[in-house]
Specification:
Blueprint (H helix, E strand, L loop, with lengths): L1 E6 L13 E6 L2 E5 L5 H5 L10 E3 L5 H4 L2 H13 L7 E6 L3 H7 L4 E6 L4 E4 L2 E7 L7 E6 L4 E4 L7 H6 L5 E5 L7 H6 L5 H11 L3 E5 L7 H11 L4 E3 L5 E3 L1
Helix pairs in contact: 7-8
The protein binds zinc ion.
The site of zinc ion has 6 residues, from helix 2.
Length: 245
């Protein structure tokens, strides 16, 4: 499996960059995890619209889903022009007007995400676990026969989620705030570097990929804290980062 970071910013992106968007590839299978601000535009650098099998939305905050509207139009256009043969498989949290909106679209085939639910996107198996954020949301484990990745989505530290991530080769984890903002992070449904280090100490991934950075911090500041509190392998997400799992 290959992970490519398309965007790594929380809330709003830096100039010419994107919010949450991660491309997973396994042979001919391509799955997009989250589709925040500017991800649809950036996606073209890494995969064609005709190549994308599925998209997964962790929750309905704009930095994770708002470019889905653009993406669905692009898929619709590709189908119309015969560039694409099949609708996009779309894994979404339910019970919202957004879910209902996309469920009516012919260019996508919608699957509702539930806690403990499973899905299949080409050669990748998906499992979903409830996250703990300001709105209902989900973490995702994506597995191929050879490797696996666990994506936290946006969440506070939660022992059940930590357990669910055990054994994943890659832990792609929101690292939104610095340690001094620990209490504020928890109130906003996010984690600090301290939470992330504690999580990774338990789940023991081969590689931690820190992401979802608050634009007001310099990632170097976040990295400095992470390197002081976590002694395993880690990398800071940035656009274009490609990792072979
Ligand atoms: Zn977010």
């Amino acid at each position: 499996m290959q992970l490519t970071v398309i965007g790594c910013w929380a809330a709003y992106p830096r100039q010419d960059e994107a919010c949450s968007g991660y491309l997973l590839e396994e042979n001919e299978t391509r799955v997009l995890l989250d589709c925040g601000h500017s991800v649809c535009s950036k996606l073209g650098q890494y995969a064609g619209i005709d190549d994308l099998d599925a998209a997964v939305i962790s929750h309905y905050h704009p930095d994770h889903f708002v470019d889905l509207y653009a993406l669905s139009h692009a898929v619709r256009s590709a189908l119309f022009r015969g560039i694409r043969k099949n609708p996009l498989q779309l894994f979404l949290p339910g019970d919202t007007h957004v879910f209902d909106y996309f469920a009516r679209k012919e260019e996508v085939q919608v699957h509702e995400i539930k806690d403990g639910g499973k899905g299949q996107a080409g050669e990748l198996s998906l499992e979903f676990f409830s996250a703990h954020h300001l709105v209902p949301g989900f973490a995702v484990r994506a597995s191929s026969p050879r490797s696996s990745l666990f994506y936290s989505g946006d969440t506070i530290y939660n022992e059940n989620l930590v357990k669910s991530s055990a054994g994943a080769d890659i832990l792609l984890i929101e690292t939104t705030m610095v340690e001094a903002e620990q209490d504020f992070a928890a109130k906003r449904g996010h984690m600090s570097t301290r939470d992330v280090a504690a999580w990774a100490h338990v789940s023991q991934p081969q590689l931690l990929v820190a992401t979802h950075f608050w634009e007001g911090y310099e990632p170097q500041q976040v990295e400095k804290e992470l390197s002081a509190s976590y002694n395993g392998n880690y990398v800071m997400a940035h656009e274009g980062l490609r990792i072979e799992i």
